[in-house]
Specification:
By secondary structure, the protein is mainly α. The chain has helices spanning 10-108, 124-127, 130-140, 149-162. It has one domain (20-112, 122-162). The chain has four helices and no strands. The longest helix has 99 residues, at 10-108.
């Protein structure tokens, strides 16, 4: 018995190797491009992450910092307004006491004494109308002019009410 041995030439073997190597390189090229695409997408995600941090997260953080600063300043403003009202209240009471002193001197007649007084005249303090006597010092008082308009109106209404029976 004779075996049929087919001899393949080297040319055929080389063709087989080339066809197999082409398949290997084709799949290898696809893997290469997929790997490159993966690297490009990772770089793209890095760029998107940096942009989102810069354009979204940082402005939100800065807004929160400013909101906190505004809240602190608002608390300080409220405290200062309370102190201002307290100081104005004390100042108003001092100005009213100065006005009362000026009006007392004016209305009692102490501000001018008669040199030729015999002592039998009716004292000036008994003949003066209170509202008329207080209006002149009220208009001339430098302290009353420093008060708020609402306070000046209140004082004027009280002084005008004193003369009414």
């Amino acid at each position: 018995m004779k075996l049929n041995k087919v001899r393949t030439s080297r040319v055929h073997i080389n063709k087989w190797k080339k066809s197999e190597s082409r398949k290997v390189t084709e799949t290898h090229e696809i893997d290469l491009w997929l790997s490159r695409l993966s690297h490009f997408s990772q770089f793209g995600l890095l760029v998107i992450t940096i942009c989102s941090l810069y354009f979204f997260v940082l402005p939100l953080y800065q807004k929160q910092v400013l909101d906190e600063l505004i809240a602190r300043k608002d608390i300080e403003l409220k405290q200062l307004n309370i102190l201002l009202e307290k100081s104005y209240s004390e100042l108003r009471s001092h100005y009213m006491s100065f006005f009362i002193q000026e009006a007392t001197i004016k209305c009692s007649g102490i501000d001018f004494m008669r040199e030729n007084s015999t002592g039998r005249e009716t004292p000036r303090a008994l003949t003066v109308k209170i509202s008329e006597c207080l209006i002149d010092p009220l208009n001339k008082s430098k302290y009353i002019k420093r008060l708020r308009p609402k306070d000046i109106e209140t004082i004027n209404s009280v002084v005008s009410a004193l003369g009414k029976p």
